[in-house]
Design brief:
The protein has 214 residues and is mainly alpha-helical. The chain contains ten helices and four strands; from the N terminus they run H-H-H-E-H-H-H-H-E-H-E-E-H-H.
Length: 214
């Protein structure tokens, strides 16, 4: 390997390491927020989380506290709620950041979280059900939507991730969300849809890593 090749290799490795940083930053941020609030009070108490930015439809629509659509994405009710979302975020981010790049992944993540919260708020108000809600799952489901489009765009696979596996994963995720209590399925669905659509607009096949078999 000559000097030019070594430089190119090192630059690619540095770029790959940078690409992993946004996922790590998001995970650390969510954990730090949870631990900080745990010191101040009980995150499982909806009234407590409401003080620190959880979403509640009347506060958003009547009082104009639209920031809650954003802040609620970084709040979690308990350790299990946090870890479930962070494990999914880590697994998805490791696969998607090298393909999308850090900035585009962050855009997809944030817009999906906002989109999921907006759909959840609209549907809850439509049926007259008001809930205090929080969590990163809408944003995480947005990354699932992003992965679906990337896999479709790359002839049914992304490295070792194949379309059939994603279909099974999606069925399980939405099924367990449907049968479980206290789950904001509207936020999940909204996040997934927004993540898919935004990725259609942002992703270009040539920008990612070369796929196996190509």
């Amino acid at each position: 390997m000559d000097r030019k090749q070594r430089l190119s290799y090192n630059q690619n490795m540095e770029k790959k390491n940078i690409n992993k940083s946004i996922t790590a930053i998001l995970i650390v941020l969510n954990i730090v927020v949870f631990l900080g609030l745990s010191v101040l009070g009980d995150p499982s108490d909806g009234e407590f989380l409401l003080k620190y930015g959880a979403m509640y439809e009347p506060y958003v629509m009547t009082d104009g506290e639209f920031y809650r659509l954003f802040t609620s994405m970084f709040l979690h009710f308990d350790f299990y709620h946090l870890m479930n979302n962070m494990i999914m975020l880590g697994a998805l981010g490791v696969n998607m950041e090298p393909v999308l790049g850090s900035i585009k992944l962050l855009i997809i993540y944030l817009l999906s979280g906002l989109g999921g919260n907006i759909l959840s708020m609209w549907m809850n108000m439509r049926v007259g059900s008001l809930f205090i809600s929080a969590g990163a799952s809408g944003a995480v489901y947005g990354l699932v939507g992003a992965m679906v489009w990337v896999v479709l765009r790359n002839r049914g696979h992304l490295g070792r991730i194949y379309g059939q596996r994603i279909c099974v994963m999606l069925l399980l995720m939405f099924y367990f969300g449907y049968i479980s209590t206290g789950i904001d399925n509207y936020a999940h669905a909204g996040g997934f849809i927004v993540g898919f659509v935004v990725t259609v607009l942002l992703y270009r096949k040539s920008q990612g890593i070369k796929m196996e078999g190509q």
